[in-house]
Specification:
By secondary structure, the chain is mainly alpha-helical. It has two domains: 68 residues; 187 residues, no CATH class. The chain contains nine helices and two strands, in the order H-H-H-E-H-H-H-H-E-H-H. Strands 1-2 form a two-stranded antiparallel ribbon. Helix 3 packs antiparallel against helix 8 and helix 4 crosses helix 5.
Length: 259
């Protein structure tokens, strides 16, 4: 077999491996989600999450011989600055539209528990959502980046990942245009740190802290929405659209410092 034939064969082999990897991880991710959302079975949720990351490590070794590094979660790539940037970015992502909604009277807080109760209630959720956030990032961003890095331009990787992230929310597809819009835009925003840093750490912590902040401000703290010319989801979408070019510009400008 000539060199060109070997190259085509290797590409087909990698595509097949990544496709199998995606199917396995997709089943495990949604099995965990089903266990906690529809069955309220926390133990089963953690079993499936454990199987998800174990399978990702095994499949990563099968595809690229680097375990979770194939998906951008190599421990050697972790930096404290990724943690700090991710946490701050996730809070800013959700805090700004929430403050705007409160300021405009679109949302109002009807019950604010004592801060100790807020902390007690948020810790179990924060622990569990760490796994769902990072596992979804592996599935919809790490897999795409691992497959298409250096084969497609950044814009192609971003669009494919965002579409996959949208389709992964199979329970939300019928919730209307507003929901579909902000999920797709979130998918665009979340993949940007991945194409800049070549790993999932900033996105993972951003995703996790954002989910935790939203839970605290809309589940532990009781809120009520008022009829208005704008909805909270529309404000959220507008804010994401503002952040996308800013995140890409700053990421490219300070890429060397993020390495």
């Amino acid at each position: 077999m000539n060199k060109k034939g070997k190259t085509v064969g290797n590409i087909r082999s990698n595509l097949s491996k990544v496709a199998i990897s995606f199917v396995v991880l997709f089943i495990l991710y949604h099995s965990a989600e089903y266990a906690v959302v529809f069955k309220n079975n926390v133990a089963l949720f953690f079993i499936f999450q454990f199987l998800f990351f174990l399978s990702a490590w095994i499949l990563g070794n099968w595809i690229g011989k680097n375990g979770l590094g194939f998906y951008g979660l190599s421990l050697s790539a972790f930096r404290v600055k990724y943690f700090l940037i991710g946490i701050i970015s996730g809070v800013v992502l959700y805090a700004v539209p929430f403050i705007v909604s409160l300021s405009l009277g679109i949302e109002s807080m009807t019950n604010i528990p004592h801060w100790i109760d807020i902390v007690k209630s948020s810790i179990p959720f924060s622990f569990g959502v760490w796994f769902t956030s990072f596992s979804e990032d592996v599935l919809t961003r790490g897999t795409v980046f691992g497959l298409f890095n250096k084969k497609l331009k950044n814009v192609g990787i971003i669009l494919i990942s965002a579409l996959l992230y949208l389709l992964n929310h199979i329970y939300r597809i019928n919730d209307g245009f507003e929901t579909v819009s902000y999920i797709f835009l979130l998918g665009v925003l979340f993949i940007i740190p991945v194409v800049i840093t070549q790993n999932l750490w900033i996105t993972g912590f951003m995703h996790w802290s954002g989910n935790t902040f939203f839970y605290i401000t809309h589940n532990i703290i009781q809120t009520d929405s008022q009829t208005s010319f704008l909805t909270p989801n529309q404000i959220f979408s507008i804010w994401i659209m503002i952040l996308i070019p800013i995140a890409y510009y700053l990421g490219c400008k300070y890429k060397s410092k993020l390495a």
